[in-house]
Structure to design on (255 residues):
């Protein structure tokens, strides 16, 4: 348990609420599922697990998304010091035929094939101190590495036809799986209990005017507790203020 020291289990939060509400253990599974939904709700804003994986490229220049994929944060390739050099997100890439092995031949028009020169004309917007340079490859100095688009419905990442690497790095938010043991930062205990209290009240079969007013108050309590929990879990640090000041200065110089 030492590795989970700053965390508490989902089970402990459920038991806390059962004790608070003076419920018997026969309501455990109902409250657990409400708590699990709260974990999902809090997770996207706070503490879902972020994974980093190296994925192979399919022959049709697509990459299979991981089964627990929720949202991406970085997509790119590695430089010589282990940093992910990002690809450009390209909305122009079509998802047509993206599950077929001959996707590339079905999505190109020979008459317009060379209409854009991605490598020499796109995204030269990084101020290096003396001039503007291509942001892709900084600080390694690598050239433009390619573009991508994500087709969530079919579970694949599409790459443009000039992409030449044999792998793709992706950092993404991973969803939890039922049946596993879950932990959450201790700062979120009261926020999750507030969520359970709110949703438990909504599930009550008979509602009066007073009960409906109470539900609104419990909803407000949840969002206040969530805001406070996030502030406690990710406090503002002096180094972050300094980095933000440097970024604002760089933008001012650039403009």
């Amino acid at each position: 348990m030492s590795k989970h020291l700053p965390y508490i289990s989902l089970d402990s939060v459920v038991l806390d609420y059962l004790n608070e509400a003076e419920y018997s253990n026969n309501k455990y599974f109902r409250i657990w599922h409400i708590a699990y939904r709260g974990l999902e709700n809090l997770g996207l804003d706070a503490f879902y697990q972020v994974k980093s994986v190296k994925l192979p490229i399919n022959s049709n220049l697509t990459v299979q998304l991981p089964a627990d994929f929720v949202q991406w944060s970085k997509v790119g390739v590695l430089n010589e010091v282990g940093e992910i050099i990002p690809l450009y997100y390209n909305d122009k890439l079509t998802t047509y035929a993206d599950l077929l092995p001959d996707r590339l031949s079905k999505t190109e028009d020979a008459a317009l094939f060379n209409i854009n020169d991605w490598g020499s004309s796109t995204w030269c917007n990084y101020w290096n101190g003396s001039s503007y340079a291509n942001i892709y490859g900084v600080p390694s100095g690598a050239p433009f590495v390619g573009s991508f688009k994500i087709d969530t419905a079919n579970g694949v990442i599409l790459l443009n036809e000039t992409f030449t690497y044999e792998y793709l790095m992706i950092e993404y938010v991973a969803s939890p799986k039922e049946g596993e043991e879950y932990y959450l930062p201790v700062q979120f205990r009261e926020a999750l209990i507030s969520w359970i209290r709110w949703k438990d009240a909504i599930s009550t079969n008979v509602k009066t005017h007073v009960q409906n007013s109470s539900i609104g108050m419990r909803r407000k309590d949840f969002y206040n507790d969530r805001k406070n929990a996030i502030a406690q879990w990710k406090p503002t640090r002096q180094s972050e203020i300094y980095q933000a000041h440097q970024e604002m200065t760089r933008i001012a110089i650039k403009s």
